[in-house]
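Teaching assistant here, posting this on the class forum so everyone can see the example we discussed in section. The complex has two components, and the goal was to see what a joint structure prediction looks like when all of them are supplied at once.
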Amino acid sequence: MRYLVGRVADFKPCEIRVIEIEGQSIGIIYTGEEYFAVLNICPHELAPVCAGTLSGTVLPCQPGEPVYSRESRILRCPWHGYEFDLGNDGRAAFTSFRGRLRLFPVIVEDNCVFVEMRARRQRPAKGD
Amino acid sequence: MADPQLPPSGTSGTIDACIHHTWGDVVELLEYLEHSWRGYVGVPRSLPRNAGMREWVPRGRYPNPFGDHLPAAKAGAPAPASSAEALADEHLEPNGIRRALLLFDRQMFVPGNPNPYLATALVRAINDWNLDRWLNRDERLYGVALVPSQTPELAACEIARVGPHPKIAGVLLAAPVLGKSLGHPVYEPIYRAAVEHDLPIVLHRGGDELLDIPAGPAGGWPMTFAEYWCLAPLALVTQLLSLIANGMLDKYPKLRFYIVGAGICWIPAFVSRFDLIARALRREVPWVRRSATDYLEQVRTSTYGIELGGSDGDTGDTSDNHGNEIVARIIDANPRLADWTIYGSGFPSWDAVSAAQVTRLFGDETSARILRDGAFEWFRWPQ
């Protein structure tokens, strides 16, 4: 089911907006190019991952020669600093940690932004 | 405390990869020291009251109040392990040691001498003394290249000078003499040279207690030898972590290390703490790409320094000895520890470890690997 979470004009680039859909806390992230909808639970220790930061990160590289990349694609959890790559299906970035963020499809249509989730109750999304 | 005498318990064919050899008298070194420096350091006992030679072995803060060596050494007799012939009688023959890696005694700290030019001259002389008086005299004896690590480019030259000798099996680093931990890029010429000559680097404990170098233990200086000795393994873990976190093991994937004096119990804690770096803190050290167990493929640890605080002699009865029980349980819970362990006795140090103790801890089958195979594959010597 599609849940309307806002209009395109409502979202600023690099913003994380946490809303509730069907009783679940979801972070809506607009990178400036794409939208992501992220379940607000970190797979590591169940932290509110969407309270973290959105940025790029450094790729694995030679000592002393950091290469910055993935601008606005990396969501870093506020509790332990685990980095998740939104552009790689929410997988942990460049580590052996197997946990992944839960992402939901986002559809933009007629200047409206929708998140597609399985319906639990037949009610529209609540924004805040 | 170690057994009062190392029992003749080594299995035939044991390789002992940690012997602290020394000279009977420091005068032995003078003939190998370059002439201009010979006059500078002086001659021992050439002046009244046993004076005459400048002190140039860096002092430590914590002399062992009970002496550094096994009590078997008699007063007035030459120090143990002070000649190739004596070592054979005292240790190699009785314990069936077929190959030994000599790692120096306090000579290993000479690179920390505050005068870098003197340090370089002394290191060269010590290497020549080692080759002439030890390695060339007994086919069982192998050694390591001491290097003037304050000047890494000169250290690389020294590795190029003595490294090719077939009886040199490694390079010794005993102290972060420049005050920066060993992962600092300033030391890179040493690692490049070691890789070029296929020599593993031996990291020996003790450098953190020297007076003459700007380094110290984390958290503050202990006040007693007892504290220092208990903490000594941590200094080595500091250096290993520095090497990994600053990318040296990734930059030089063929570089390998042999850690001496840290025991084995540091490994499980290291592996689990390292996860923090690899996962949560990688943003700071993005060149750290592997897990701890992967990095440990480039590392081996010596049995010298193993945590056998309360010896139970040869009885094997650990009922009154919680320390040994803990070590035995750590080994049972971490079967891979044996993969990373190489036998080194530390003879003639007071805390030397016998082959019998290793066998009791690890069992016959596993200890056979530790007593022979581990060292066989690790150092650059004939297979």
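For the discussion questions: DSSP finds 13 helices and ten strands in chain B. Strands of chain B lie at 14-19, 42-47, 51-53, 97-102, 141-146, 168-173, 201-204, 257-260, 299-302, 341-342. Think about how each of these relates to the inputs above.
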